[in-house]
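Something for you to look into today, if you have time. I want to see for myself how the chain folds. Leave the record below and I will have a look.
***
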Amino acid sequence: SRTRSGISSFSLFQNQQCLTPQFLLYLAVPPSNGAFPPCPPFPRQDRHSDNSHLALQAKHTEQHEGRLYNIPLEELSAVFPHGLPHRFQQQVLTFNEARVMVRKPALELLAYLKGSNFSHPAVRYVIYGERGTGKTMTLCHVVHYCSRQGWLVLHIPDAHLWVKNCKELLQSSYNKDRLDQPLQASVWLKNFKASNERFLQEIKTQKKYMWGKRECTEEGRPLREVVEQGLARVRSASDAVGVLLRELKQQSHRGSFRLLVAVDGVNALWGRSTLRKEDKSPVCPEELTLVHNLRKMLMNDWSGGAIVTTLSQTGSLFKPSSAYTPQELLGKEGFDALDPFVPIPVPNYSPKEFESCYGYYLERRWLQHEKGQACSCAAALRSAPERAELRASALLRFGRGPGGTESPTPRLVALELKGTAGWGGSGGPGTTGRPRRDRAVFAGGVGSLRADGAGAEPAVSW
């Protein structure tokens, strides 16, 4: 299946679900001599992008839906010091640019934020959808918008990490019934400081805080000192996070700053955890200091900002893989805690978004047909009466060139495509038959794709 001869056409099973935001079309086979050729220069025909509109990001409207706007690379480390979703980060490293698609869910959220009355209690928004539809990137779009508008952004990039795989649990010195997570707290404080540096000097504490018998932060001191206390004394990091959230919540109504609370995977705050106490008994999320303080931040008993969250099945504990609705992932306790909220569904790519993403990969020469006619594949697919629901799992790593140096050319380690309808064997579209292999040419080499027909109903009809 890895021979380089006998390639007749570019036959990639593209449809609007194949190019979900989570799906990677990074496929390359290393050459036989072990040397990776340099990547071809990227053409700059930016008809699918919205680079000139970046400075006016606040004016994104429905007419910009499906277009790609550029985030300067120097802004990524400031707005997202914790990093971006892994697969998007790999794309940024490969193309040396960060292009985010303007999608309808993000536009809907931005319209709500622009029309909000911030003297009223904070409105809660819950972004949900099936796995891989782009919930995290929708949240990142909102975070970037608010950051550029001068908001103070309190971003939790993955709440699931707070309820599992914790290396150190300590009894809280403030409340003996709670458990501190000093390592997670210190990492979050470091990232928060990097993205909100200017606010930490302007906002002052409203009361005196004792960190020990001799250490304290006096009333009227900059919040920077609270953050630095948590970084310098890791044992106090969890308490420093609690103080920080309390001060921001109490002062947001003054109007000196707008506060965005953005939590990815908010369903992790309710349910079960994998953590254990010293006596091997399970730890409930509400016993964790970080979770306890974040739950209070999600209450709508404060004003001057907004609360934007996502539901994520990825990393979720003890939930079926098919669950994605708020009722399924939040459970009764979590649903009641967030109610009322504004649901923001995130679907798979629309035909317009598919065209934009497909065109972007073509223009960057990431999808290449052996005869330069890759677009004919998409045209043929659009005319097909039935399409399969494709589930892809791709693992990307960068190969090593001669001498062990890192090569910019990626290699595919594993790619699996599974279809439900329209990919039968000799019976034609919509029939069940022997799984077939088709050949595809990508930047960097030749790959082999496999699609299994299961004879189910098509997932999408245009």
Remarks:
- The domain at 104-345 is CATH 3.40.50 (Rossmann fold).
- Residues 1-56, 370-374, 380-462 have pLDDT under 50 and may be disordered.
- The radius of gyration is 24 Å.
